[in-house]
Amino acid sequence: MSEGRGLLVVISGPSGVGKDTVIKRLLELDPNLRYSVSYTTRRPRPGEVDGVNYHFASRDEFERLIREGAFLEHATYGGNLYGTPFAQLDQERAAGRDIVLKIDVQGAEQVRKRAPDALRIFLAPPSMDELLRRRTERHSEDLGEGAARQHIAQAEMALAPHFDHVVVNDDLERAVKEVLEIIQAARQRQT
Ligand code: 5GP
Predict the structure, then answer these.
(1) Domain tally, the chain
(2) Cβ atoms within 10 A of the Cβ of 9, count?
(3) Quick check: CB of 34 below 6 Å from ligand 1?
(4) 146-181 pLDDT, tens per residue?
(5) Residue 13 lies in a domain
(6) 41 lines ligand 1 (CB under 6 A)
(7) 29: which of 20, 44, 67, 145 lies 20 to 30 Å off by Cα?
């Protein structure tokens, strides 16, 4: 268990790179980690549960939360709004638990400015072809949205060097181990 305030761990990278799978595995392996549940205006995908995967909100509700200063960061992605609420972060970190954020690169940039102590990790695909293949397999987007996301993904890849660490998600268990080692090293620096 970590002593004092918990870490803020940002996991970013292009949509489809496997952030959800990596984070799910991290949470299984490390009992001191918690997942930050974001707000979004996009519709739930089959199997997604409100309050677990996201807090699903209307645009009006989301805009009200922005005005109230409820978000550490928020960004527009593929026409929808996404944001990280402060409340859960503060609670977990004050209790000494580390919290993991799954956010896009715009959000990660805002976190760097507002929470400079954050540990920012970029997950990269082994190649752009592999990224496209994984997203096609997921069947979660229509073609128009898929093409737009591929364009966004290329711009996002260019930002990888801005992160504290870049981890290639070639093999799930290997990538998860590397992320866990990065988190462990940061905990040790903190204590
Ligand atoms: P998806 O719709 O596929 O769940 O997520 C689309 C993108 O939004 C992904 O790159 C995901 O990491 C990002 N995202 C999810 N939650 C947040 C958030 O709270 N803030 C920001 N900036 N991006 C987020």
Answers:
(1) 1
(2) 23
(3) no
(4) 677 778 788 889 999 999 999 999 999 999 999 999
(5) yes
(6) no
(7) 44
